[in-house]
Structures are given as C-alpha cells and as structure tokens.
Design brief:
By secondary structure, the protein is mainly alpha-helical. The protein has four helices and no strands.
Length: 149
C-alpha cells in the first residue's frame, strides 16, 4: 500500500501593509479610483456651489447664529477655488502619481474644513461631503502601489 504524497501547499498571501496580497491594498486601490472619481464630482459640485454663492447671495440661508459668520460671496470664492483644486487633484489620482496623492490629501483636508464651517448653510450636504472626504483620505493614505512588475 503506497500513500500518495500531499500536494505542496501554496505560500500564504503577503498580509503585510502594502504587500501584494493585502486585502486592505486591494480595497485602497479600488478606493483610490473611486476617490479620484468622487474628487472630480465633488470638485465640480463645489465649483457650482461657489458660482451660486457668488452670483446670488440669497441662494443660501443660515440656520441659527454661529461663531464663524462669513459673507456668502467670500464663501463662494473659497468653494470655487477649492473645487478647482480638488478636480485637478482628482484627475491626477487616475494616473497614480504620488504628487496627486499628496495634493489630493491636502485639498481634501481643506475641503473637509470648509464643509465643516459650511454646516450652518447646508447641513445635510456638508455632512455627506465630510463623510465622502474621509473615505477619500482613507483611500489615499492606505493605497500602496504594488512593487511587482
């Protein structure tokens, strides 16, 4: 009676951060693509939001009195400039460029701050954009380009 040799077991996938088989890396790679898409869409919405605030101050109303009260025209310009920067960084993320990840993280951070301060004018929209921005930041910081060619 002969016993059959067991087939060799495949090596375990590399689960280290940034490893080629990391589940977090595959999620972050997909998240980076989704993050770039969300950045472009968010940036375009911010541009339109800024144009609406610049063109007509009565488009938005404030709910309650807050410590940080700004002129809506100034907010329009802030959203317009940040929106353009977010769109450019979002397109850069599609190329996988490191500069786009660094710039994207910076402008998304600025957008998070702007949306937090924008809460009195558009609370629901600001919360959606804050959550979206946090996901984009997670994907930008967790993505590691695979080292295998």
């Amino acid at each position: 009676m002969t016993s059959a040799a067991h087939p060799p077991t495949p090596p375990a996938p590399d689960r280290t951060p940034g490893g080629s088989g990391s589940d977090a890396d595959s999620w972050a790679a997909g998240g980076l693509t989704l993050g770039g898409t969300l950045m472009v869409v968010y940036g375009l919405f911010a541009v339109f939001q800024g144009i609406a605030a610049i063109a007509n101050d009565e488009v938005y109303t404030s709910f309650g009195d807050y410590v940080f009260a700004f002129d809506l025209t100034a907010w329009g310009w802030i959203h317009l400039v940040v929106g353009v920067l977010v769109v450019l960084a979002g397109f850069g993320l599609f190329t996988g460029a490191t500069w786009a990840r660094v710039v994207g993280a910076g402008v998304v951070g600025l957008a998070l701050i702007a949306n937090f301060i924008w809460l009195p004018y558009q609370p629901f929209w600001s919360i959606i954009m804050i959550v979206t921005g946090l996901f984009v930041l997670w994907s930008v910081f967790n993505y590691r380009a695979s080292s295998t060619a």
